[in-house]
Design brief:
The protein is mainly beta and about 230 residues long. It contains 1 helix and 9 strands, in the order βββββββαββ.
């Protein structure tokens, strides 16, 4: 049995959410090339802060993976999403409308639930070029290893960021995380249907300097006491 992921209906997703920021945000204090978690706390207050995420390793729940297209909504509105019928069947861009910048209004998007450590889960949902390209490359390794290592889907990929690569585009430079499957592991409790609700604590706002694609290979070992 094989797994096919074609990275070529609309719906919401479960928070909190995490995303990759290529250039960071001076206003919000986010460093370039970092992961940001956003959502609401137990008091229904919004939060947004940097987390290690894939730098420490995240378990990716392939059962929740959705691929498709996303279009920015009006000011204050959620983006419009068009998910593919399945991860093995990509669909064309909904239309060729463009933004004022000249870029297509619809961008390739992904959504997948991940265990991010500390017994917490978050949804990586994003339509940025760098993030989607990083997943597209990762998906080739996942598909190649799935039949041999997933035990027919019982085990999930533990993914770690091993560096950052930069690509010059017409609109500027895109910094893309380099993601690698380092192990296939049992499903963490936080990714089970009856997962307990765990408060999302404030993470450290500083992250290790990201390695460049040409740097020495990163340490892909996961601490034995790591809790997902």
């Amino acid at each position: 049995m094989t797994l096919t992921i074609d990275t070529g209906d609309t719906g919401g997703s479960k928070g909190p959410w995490m995303s990759w920021t290529s250039n960071g945000s001076a206003m919000k204090g986010f460093k370039p090339k970092s992961w940001v978690l956003r959502g609401k706390d137990a008091n229904d207050e919004k939060f947004e802060h940097v987390i290690p995420a894939f730098e420490n390793g995240c378990v990716m729940d392939l059962d929740t993976l959705q691929l498709g297209w996303m279009k920015d909504g009006a000011t204050g509105q959620a983006p419009e999403k068009r998910w593919n019928p399945s991860i093995s069947q990509a669909t064309p861009r909904p239309d060729d409308s463009k933004k004022q910048s000249g870029a297509y209004a619809w961008s390739a998007a992904l959504s997948v639930r991940c265990a991010i450590g500390g017994g917490q889960a978050a949804t990586w949902e994003q339509a940025a070029f760098g993030a989607y390209d990083a997943f597209s490359k990762l998906s080739k390794q996942i598909a190649a290893e799935w039949a041999e290592k997933s035990e027919n889907g019982r085990l999930l990929p533990l993914v770690k960021q091993t560096g950052v690569e930069s690509q010059t585009l017409q609109s500027g430079t895109s910094n893309k995380p380099v993601l690698t499957v380092v192990q296939w592991v049992p499903r963490p409790d936080c990714l089970k249907d009856d997962a307990p609700v765990i408060a999302t604590a404030q993470a450290e706002t500083t992250t290790p300097a990201a390695a460049t694609a040409s740097a020495a290979p990163a340490d892909t070992r996961i601490p034995e006491d790591a809790e997902f």
